[in-house]
Write a structure and sequence with these properties.
The protein is α/β, with parallel strands linked by helices and about 550 residues long. Helix content is about 25%, strand content about 25%. The C terminus is likely disordered. Bound molecules: adenosine-5'-triphosphate and magnesium ion.
């Protein structure tokens, strides 16, 4: 990346600067609080960059906290995947991993405290009735008939809830705030519900679980979070967040700040929808390279640095916005163009027989993996009298439009190698050119032909005897609709048919044995990554990361 320009501070950075200057805080503590109900996606990558980034920028810490208040949808597989994604992106959390479930005892104690203060009650209304009593934006709510239960009765009922004496949905604990509040989240929200489910951390210890709204701010307070940064949809919940902090004997006074959610066109960023793609077998798992998940992007060959640079390029503002996927792709290409080693892959091979070379001639040409970057090493490229070039690089007819101009009587430079001249070609019965006959122009390794007849183009090639077969997995965008998430569309109806195409190609021998996850620019073809799961020296498998240019089709 080019040297970053100093960006003007965003609104959260300004708040933090002011809080440090005024002495309100002397240490900045943030947290990233994923719910372990799916794999992280590109939207989470932004939240990770914001939260870990603020901590780094102001010399503070960022916690990783699993917001695990909903045992029915959460799994340990997700807990593990999320940790690995955060680390892969290049961040590390302060101290141990935290779980909201670590605070279940404390949260329960504070619920009892609220009952004793006359600020919480057990309500027996059904879900349906609760909705009716709650009113709407136009209509104020009505107090629940259970709102005035005595403190003793509430304590006894809440204890019975905890002991599992009621069925799910029979009752719940609500805080007594204001059923006429214009803010719907202040109309006596439920803070505990009965869920007879086994929890991935606490097992069967609890059958009542706190709500997100109740648990979140108190967890922030317990962890000493100074700035609790979340997305815009929680803005309406902030008065409730503050209400709990004011009405409970919490050890600190955290504040919530909201920024806009990241959406990207041609994709969906919702764990629920991503899960539907996995469960519906539309893709091959959460880490399918077409998925906008962090693990999918990883398997696709996107680099952590490129994803971070993309996230840092986005505004942190108080409005939601949709970003063009081309902006993400720009950062991927920019990084790979500068840093990906080069290699050769011939996708549509056409044999060239060089007749003025001894049939058993073989030599190795030493080629750098990346020009002007000697630290990236070099490889031996075998050259012999029979090579493959791409079918598109030879034409029967000479024409002005054909840039390479490799035709009978014309010359071409073999990339990193010699100049050859076509003398003739052979066709099969269907009229396809199946072989080019050529001659080598002597003394042209690294220099122009002595007779002054310079070739017009350069092509990539592989020695036939040394070429290795590889599986290429070429991906198109998963969705062909710009806004699969929008309006009342069914995102499943917006899928691109055949977004995965598997083909076989030939690669130079040095590429077969590379480590999984190595990304290369296959010269003139695109960026490809050795598949993290399936690639091996015996069966090389490469995924198309992205095309060389924005309009190159397949990758974008
Ligand atoms: P989803 O709807 O995909 O399940 P979520 O907000 O429920 O998303 P969480 O696991 O609760 O997912 O999110 C953890 C953190 O990541 C939260 O602070 C949330 O605000 C943030 N986050 C989630 N999605 C985005 C997004 N698209 N852009 C920015 N931040 C996001
Ligand atoms: Mg959520």
């Amino acid at each position: 990346m080019t040297e970053e320009k100093a960006k003007p501070a965003n609104f959260i950075e300004k708040i933090i600067q002011d809080d440090l200057a005024s002495g309100k805080h002397d240490n900045i503590q943030t947290r990233f609080p994923p719910e372990p109900n799916g794999y992280l996606h590109i939207g989470h990558a932004k939240a990770i960059c914001v939260n870990f980034g603020l901590a780094q920028q102001f010399g503070g810490q960022c916690n990783l906290r699993f917001d695990d208040t909903n045992p029915e949808k959460e799994e340990d597989e997700y807990v593990q995947a999320i940790q690995s994604d955060v680390k892969w992106l290049g961040f590390d959390w302060a101290g141990d991993i935290h779980y909201t479930s670590d605070y279940f005892d404390q949260l329960h104690e504070w619920a009892v405290y609220l009952i004793k203060e006359g600020k919480a009650y057990v309500c027996d209304l059904s879900a349906e009735q609760t909705k009716e009593y709650r009113g709407s934006f136009e209509k104020v709510g009505t107090n629940s008939p259970f709102r005035d239960r005595s403190i003793e009765e509430n304590l006894a009922l809440f204890e019975k809830m905890r002991l599992g004496e009621f069925d799910e949905g029979a009752c719940g604990l609500r805080v007594k705030i204001d059923m006429t509040s214009p803010n719907m989240s202040m109309r006596d929200p439920y803070i505990y519900r009965i869920k007879k489910a086994t929890h991935h951390q606490t097992g069967d210890k609890w059958c009542i679980y706190p709500s997100y709204d109740y648990a979140h701010g108190q967890s922030d307070a317990l962890e000493g979070i100074s700035h609790s940064v979340c997305t815009l949809e929680f803005a309406d919940h902030r008065p409730l967040y503050d209400w709990f902090i004011e009405n409970l004997p919490v050890p600190a006074q955290p504040h919530q700040y909201e920024f806009g959610r990241l959406s990207i066109n041609y994709t969906v960023t919702s764990k629920r929808k991503l899960r539907a793609l996995v469960e519906g077998k539309v893709v091959n798992g959460w880490d399918d390279p077409r998925m906008p998940t962090i693990s999918g992007m990883r398997r696709r060959g996107y680099t952590p640095a490129a994803i971070r640079h993309f996230c840092d390029s986005l505004a942190v503002s108080k409005t939601d916005g949709t970003v063009d996927v081309a902006q993400l792709e720009f950062f991927i290409r920019d990084d790979l163009n500068q840093n990906a080693p080069r290699g050769t892959c011939v996708i549509n091979p056409l044999k060239v027989v060089i007749n003025n070379m001894a049939a058993d001639h073989s030599e190795n040409i030493t080629v750098p993996f990346l020009q002007d970057r000697p630290e990236m090493g070099e490889r031996e490229v075998p050259f012999s009298s029979e090579i493959y070039i791409d079918q598109n690089d030879f034409k029967e007819e000479y024409s002005k439009k054909f840039k390479k101009k490799f035709c009978v009587g014309k010359r071409i430079r073999l990339r990193h190698g010699y100049v050859i001249e076509a003398e003739g070609f052979e066709k099969d019965e269907q009229g396809n050119i199946v072989q080019v006959n050529a001659k080598l122009i002597e003394n042209t390794l690294g220099c122009d032909p002595e007779d002054g007849d310079k070739p017009k183009g350069v092509v990539h090639w592989i020695s036939c005897a040394h070429a290795v077969e590889a599986e290429l997995r070429m991906y198109k965008r998963l969705f062909s609709d710009e806004n699969p998430d929008g309006g009342n569309k069914d995102f499943m109806e917006c899928l691109t048919p055949d977004s995965l195409e598997v083909t076989t190609a030939l690669i130079e021998p040095a590429l077969a044995g590379v480590a999984p996850e190595s990304v290369f620019q296959f010269e003139r073809e695109g960026y490809y990554v050795a598949d993290r799961v399936d690639h091996s020296i015996d069966k090389p498998v490469f995924n198309l990361t992205i095309g060389l240019r924005e309009d190159k089709g397949l990758a974008s």
